[in-house]
Amino acid sequence: MNRRSLILTASAAALSGCAPLTQRLDLGPLGFRGPRFEGEDFVSFDGARLGLKTWLPDGQPEWVIVGLHGMNDYSNAYHLAADWWTGQGIATYAFDVRGFGRSPSLWVTAHMVGGWVVEPPDWLVRKVMPSDNLDELRRMGKDPLMIWGARSDTVYGLVGLMEKAWRSTDRITVPTAWFYGVNDKIIPKEPTVEAAARLKPSDRTACYEKGWHLLLVDQQAETVWRDAVSFLRDPAAPWPSGAPPIPASVKLIEAMAPRPLKGGAKSSAKSSGL
What we know:
274 residues, five-stranded mixed sheet, alpha/beta, Rossmann fold, globular
């Protein structure tokens, strides 16, 4: 089986000193028939029903992409890219991680128990833009399955997971592509440079001058979609976008950033209500 790994920086992190509440996984109920797809559910190994979205091409797919969404998001994060990929003969399966979207357990607690939820400060929300696609950000803001804020123990676990991933990029054995946006204000540049440098020499990276945190929904998202398809078909082929690799230093990434527009950029974001 041919396998590829695509890393798109689409998770947020914060620090917390609170002890985590571990979610326990049980065995499936008596008579359980094993993991399977049932309509809009992915029945997991323990019988839990996780929300599932699929985008299928006409006929037999050339490739299958398994989408894993970021923090506080859910499977719909792939709706723009996956719809476009079907036209390339590619199927996409994305599920809601436990505690997010339509999947059970922590989702209810994160929405209902306010005392456990860490809300980002207002100044941070207004200053940090995850994408330049304002229409998509508005849609996400109205989506009841999105989570705004996070349980303290969820953040604790996220930080630990991100640190483990940062230390372990040299252990990835399958061909890997890592995409990063120059304008990403959520994933820090320094650990990105360090982690990308530990990838295998044969692995690929791409750094997008007009890319933000949510690379799959940015205004230049189709550029990323095309590069992803190219990597699946030939991991060694040049990027169709011509994007350079992730630079070896933070200063080099910052030098790629477009110069800020005079006047209009800030007022446009402010008038959008985001």
